[in-house]
Model the fold of this input.
Amino acid sequence: MTKKKILVTGGAGFIGGNFVQYMVDKYPSYNIYNLDLLTYAGDLAKHHEIEKKENYHFLKADIADREAIIPLFEKEKFDYVVHFAAESHVDRSITDPGVFVRTNILGTQVLLDAAKEVGISKFIHVSTDEVYGELDFDPTTFFSEETPLQPNSPYSASKASSDLLVRAYHETYGLPINITRCSNNYGPYHFPEKLIPLTISRVLNDEKVPVYGDGGNIRDWLHVMDHCAAIDLVMHEGVNGDVYNVGGHNERTNLEVVKTIINALDKSEDLIEFVKDRLGHDKRYAIDPTKLERLGWNPNYTFETGISQTIQWYLDNKEWWEQIISGEYKKYFERNYSLK
Ligand code: NAD
Ligand code: DAU
Done:
């Protein structure tokens, strides 16, 4: 029997990387193709344990490069596309929106054209709860799949645009699709520009942690492996054309998250430094995951078990994040923060 071919875009990044490892281990009967441009956010060092496996393959390519992508699909005839590749950091989208439009919108359109041309079993588009905009602090309100899209940052606007293109290719051309919209992920291999790994790495180095505004903004945290399991389920069981929200009811203020990490590492809360707020900073995200739960998904991690596991992972894998924060990223950090 020929093995199914699964194309994972962005599989050298944080979530895509965890998903590739999860799929390679769980499905020896599938061939997993990791397609990634290896931007600042992608690295292959994370795949040292799977790179020799027969069912793992790496392809270096730019999803927005039509001349490379269309022939690749014609040659390989992928069965599924799981599309993670994106510019993903809100702060970078505020200083440089152009690359977000190119990668997140044009790149998605190229992949959709390629998928349509060869006819695939399903295109799974990995999106974000940020496309819904922000909620106020009323704890009884949540994003559902019916919440209107109202993105506030250039990043979320580019993701919402790509969601609409995916929807349109389904409605117009009958392309089989699912869209998933997940809340904030955390876990192993999270790039240290994002709040949780930034806090862990800086606290471990006794450096100040920049907290935007008063630290009262709320995010709904989900362990990356719970997200991977959700995508696996949607890929195999999701109703064609449907959107699924992914989140685990783990709302925390940013200040609570930072204090949890500082206390777990037995350091002083004096490391916290309140800095200028992010422009257009969304107040709160919170997901109603009922639809996905009905499909059979439940998270394995609570925030408490997940954050302990994650802190331990950063303690055990210093060489991975130290080589990142000592390189080009260091200049980015200095440009974006003015900490004394
Ligand atoms: P990431 O920034 O860690 O990884 C993105 C990957 O995409 C990198 O490996 C990068 O090299 C690759 N890439 C970028 N531009 C490319 C291009 N033009 N061609 C090919 N590859 C390219 O991102 P992440 O945090 O793992 O997020 C993955 C996806 O999940 C994104 O689509 C993001 O919008 C979505 N998402 C993220 C979160 C989160 O909390 N991180 C939550 C919900 C949804
Ligand atoms: O909700 C899903 C989204 O979560 C994903 O779509 C994005 O790709 C992902 O980056 C993430 O976006 P956020 O903006 O919520 O994540 P970030 O880690 O950048 O910030 C989390 C919160 O912490 C946010 O309210 C801003 C705040 N923050 C962030 C940084 C980097 C700080 O207070 N200080 C910081 O230095």
About this structure: The first strand starts at residue 4 and ends at 9. The radius of gyration is 19 Å. Residues 4-185+221-246 form a domain with the Rossmann fold fold (CATH 3.40.50.720).
